[in-house]
């Protein structure tokens, strides 16, 4: 009993730090969401006001497309790149190192660089496309209503797919080579090996990495905020940016807290169902 009490004493500082850094902010956000500027209890009034705003529904839809588009292409491109980097070819070590560059570049640096490259008048991308007659005149990649969100997703995919590739590459090292040798004896080709051996064996890695990507995409605002700040005309406005705007630009902290609580609930539901339906399944 005495030894157990001593253990609690060692854990106590960490618990106090977690309470100050996590528990208290969460509790205070919940309190703000059900009170007004004077601290009076107003129930669900803040939730009703923020939900009545058309901006909220637009931000939710943008967040969905941002997360869905990013995750799908990050996983597909990352898995293919990881499998490719696992093959034997000249310069493989260099290729692995170069692949990591987008991921290790700070987000704000990557966003600023892409913003300049995609500039309508001075961007190198428009210069290359117009000089090679791919397009007749410069395109407003970051100002066009139909191009700005796909461009943001493409930048996010470029930034994060190396992480998926490295995780996949690490997972490939744990697959027994005997499985591939037996498959080759049976006459399997490369794509059959990938489909029936590699992907099933990588399932736990893909599940874990996808969950991380979902959480990061739901909370990742650096690229969008640094390049478009949610514009033009809210075409790239996602919910975390709306929360920031509501709180620190409109100074409506109670409504921002209500939106934060709803967003947190949605994220928890997504994570719960993802883990329930995918991660809880039997792994091969």
Protein architecture, described:
It is globular and about 75 Å long. With about 280 residues, the chain is an all-alpha fold. The chain has a single domain (about 55-280), classed as MetI-like fold (Orthogonal Bundle). The protein contains 13 helices and no strands. The model has no long low-confidence stretch (mean pLDDT about 90). The longest helix has about 30 residues, at about 1-35. It has helices spanning about 1-35, 45-50, 55-85, 90-100, 100-105, 105-115, 125-130, 150-170, 175-185, 190-220, 220-225, 240-250, 255-280.
What is this entry, summarized?
The chain is mainly α and 284 residues long. 74% of the residues lie in helices and 0% in strands.
Kindly list the characteristics that best describe this protein.
284 residues, mainly alpha, MetI-like fold, 13 helices, 0% strand, globular
């Amino acid at each position: 009993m005495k030894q157990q009490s001593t253990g609690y004493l060692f854990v106590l500082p960490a618990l106090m730090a977690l309470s100050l850094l996590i528990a208290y902010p969460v509790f205070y956000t919940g309190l703000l969401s059900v009170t007004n500027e004077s601290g009076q209890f107003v129930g669900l009034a803040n939730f009703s006001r923020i939900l009545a705003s058309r901006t909220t529904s637009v931000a939710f839809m943008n967040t969905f497309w941002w997360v869905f588009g990013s995750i799908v292409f990050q996983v597909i491109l990352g898995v293919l790149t990881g499998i490719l980097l696992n093959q034997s070819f000249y310069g493989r070590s260099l290729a692995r190192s170069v692949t990591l560059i987008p991921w290790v570049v700070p987000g704000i640096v990557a966003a600023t660089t892409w913003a300049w490259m995609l500039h309508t008048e001075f961007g190198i991308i428009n210069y290359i496309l117009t000089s090679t007659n791919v397009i007749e005149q410069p395109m407003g990649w970051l100002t066009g209503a139909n191009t700005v969100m796909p461009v943001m997703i493409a930048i996010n995919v470029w930034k994060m797919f190396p992480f998926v590739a490295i995780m996949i590459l690490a997972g490939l090292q744990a697959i027994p080579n005997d499985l591939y040798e037996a498959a080759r004896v049976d006459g399997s080709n490369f794509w059959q090996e990938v489909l029936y051996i590699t992907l099933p064996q990588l399932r736990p890695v893909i599940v874990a990495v996808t969950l991380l990507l979902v959480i990061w995409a739901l909370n990742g605002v650096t690229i969008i905020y640094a390049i478009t700040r949610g514009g033009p005309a809210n075409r790239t406005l996602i919910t975390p940016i709306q929360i920031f705007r509501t709180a620190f630009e409109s100074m409506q902290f109670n409504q921002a807290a209500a939106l934060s609580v709803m967003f947190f609930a949605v994220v928890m539901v997504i994570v719960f169902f993802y883990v329930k339906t995918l991660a809880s399944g039997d792994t091969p």
